[in-house]
Design a protein that fits this description.
Blueprint lengths: L11 H12 L3 H14 L4 H14 L2 H14 L4 H13 L3 H14 L4 H13 L3 H14 L4 H14 L2 H14 L4 H28 L6 H13 L3 H14 L4 H14 L2 H14 L4 H13 L3 H14 L4 H14 L2 H19 L4 H9 L21 H11 L16 H16 L3 H27 L1
Helix pairs in contact: 1-2, 1-3, 2-3, 3-4, 4-5, 5-6, 5-7, 6-7, 7-8, 7-9, 8-9, 9-10, 10-11, 11-12, 12-13, 12-14, 13-14, 14-15, 15-16, 16-17, 16-18, 17-18, 18-19, 19-20, 21-23
Length: 459
């Protein structure tokens, strides 16, 4: 006798209904139907495939991972499940797990071009550019006419400093997709970049007398690449320069600066420490070590190095600025201002009143910017740092209406001073009643700005 509770076979109509909902982008409805079917048919792989893909489309990270893990328990050799699981890890910026998952995908299917491409993207995100290039090229060996892979490989080659090869890939992508104007723009930009850098190197080698491939030329090339934003390529060239001459403290310093800017703080710290071996009395190096330790929130060690820099060079203003930025990172705004005011007093003695206005603007806005020692030239406010802006605005209020308090975007100190001088002039020419009205209006603007920020914070 047949048990009436025994489920019948999963019908083709039910599967087609799920697929239809997915294709119509009705993802929540597709998931709801699949869940009902899984309750009756818990070992049907196609149901997990549909639900995993739907959750992936909706950006539901945990649900997608859980679905694909259940699928892989049913079928440990499911290549697409591994590939999609890798995408989830990549999108959630867990690049180490993404790399591990894509490597498993390739182990199961070595000729899966997309898996090699995805692995290349993940490796690139971790700074392993040479391995990323190898993965892209493996993908292209399998599918040589994929313009997306060609462009990704080209960009990585640019970041690695190989402009010649990057241009070749861009040319091929442009030929495959002539209707895509963006590919032509990328190609033209790369050609221009390549020619400009080659000309700079040739000119410097000619004027300096150093040979191409020498430590000096490699160091110069690294500096040029850093200035143009090719940080990984700069790091690579500095490392090549160190191979030629392992005793150059300046090259180690440059390696540290590029590594810091790229976010490789451990590499930067090692480079700066290595530089101190060859130049133990360079205050600049200890200041760099301090700011690098501050990035890793090793604050006590950071201040030890700032103090070491000031022992060597008591009037080293940059050490005080870096101290201010590190105090700012700790949320100790008053100490940040004190450090910067110390730098200001030194600057005033060295350069007079001409630079005081520039630096005063920079120091007053330290808590607002905290970007770099050049940030007094241009800075921005945005939603993410408006809470800090409120703290700065409160201190500015002590000076009355000298500086406007509405939101400022990419406004230079010169224009701020121009605005404040114009406001002061207009203010002084008003009657007493008009002055009172202006003061009330200014206060209302500040209150409105603070309320706006507090409203965002409460949400």
């Amino acid at each position: 006798m047949v048990n009436s509770d025994t489920p019948k076979a999963l019908s083709t109509e039910s599967i087609n209904e799920c697929i239809s909902l997915f294709n119509k982008k009705c993802f929540p409805e597709a998931i709801a139907l699949v869940k009902k079917l899984i309750a009756r048919f818990p070992k049907k792989i196609i149901l997990y495939e549909i639900m995993g893909a739907a959750n992936l489309e909706l950006g539901k990270t945990e649900e997608t991972i859980e679905t694909y893990q259940k699928l892989l328990l049913l079928d440990p050799y499911h290549v697409e499940a591994y590939n999609n699981l890798g995408k989830v890890f990549y999108d959630s910026k867990d690049f180490s797990k993404a790399i591990e998952t894509y490597q498993k995908t390739i182990e199961l299917e070595p000729h899966f071009a997309d898996a090699h491409y995805n692995l290349g993207n993940s490796l690139k995100q971790t700074g392993r550019l040479q391995q990323a290039i190898e993965s892209y090229e493996t993908s292209l060996n399998i599918n040589p006419d994929d313009p997306e892979v060609l462009v990704s490989c080209g960009k990585t080659l640019e970041n690695y400093g190989d402009f010649e090869k990057a241009v070749q890939y861009y040319k091929k992508a442009s030929l495959l997709k002539p209707e895509n104007s963006q590919y032509q723009i990328i190609l033209n930009t790369a050609i221009k970049e390549k020619d400009e850098i080659n000309n700079l190197i040739s000119d410097h080698a000619h004027r300096s007398g150093f040979e191409i491939g020498s430590k000096e030329i490699l160091n110069f090339l690294g500096t040029v690449l850093h200035q143009r934003g090719f940080l990984d390529a700069a790091i690579y060239k500095f490392e090549k320069a160190i191979e030629v001459d392992p005793s150059s403290w300046e090259v180690y310093k440059n390696l540290g600066i590029s590594s810091n800017k790229r976010g490789y703080h451990d590499k930067a710290l090692n480079a700066f420490k290595q530089a101190t071996i060859f130049s133990p009395n360079c205050a600049e190096l200890y200041a760099y070590i301090g700011i690098t330790l501050g990035h890793s929130e090793q604050f006590d060690a950071a201040f030890e190095n700032f103090n070491k820099a000031l022992e060597i060079k008591p009037d080293y203003t940059q050490a005080y600025v870096y101290m201010g930025r590190t105090f700012d990172k700790q949320g100790k705004f008053q100490k940040a201002i004190e450090s910067c005011n110390k730098a200001l007093s030194i600057r005033k003695k060295m350069h007079g009143d001409d630079t005081e206005k520039k630096y005063k603007i920079y120091f007053n806005y330290l808590s607002l910017t905290g970007i770099s020692d050049q940030s007094f030239y241009s800075y921005e406010t945005n939603e993410s740092n408006e809470s800090k802006a409120v703290e700065v605005l409160k201190s500015i209020l002590k000076d009355g209406l000298q500086i406007r308090v509405d939101r400022v975007i990419d406004l230079s100190p010169k224009s701020i001073l121009t605005n404040s001088e114009r406001i002061r002039e207009k203010f002084e020419n008003k009657s007493n009643l008009q002055k009172i009205i202006l003061i009330i209006g200014g206060c209302l603007i500040v209150i409105s700005a603070i309320a706006k920020v507090l409203g965002r914070m409460s949400n």
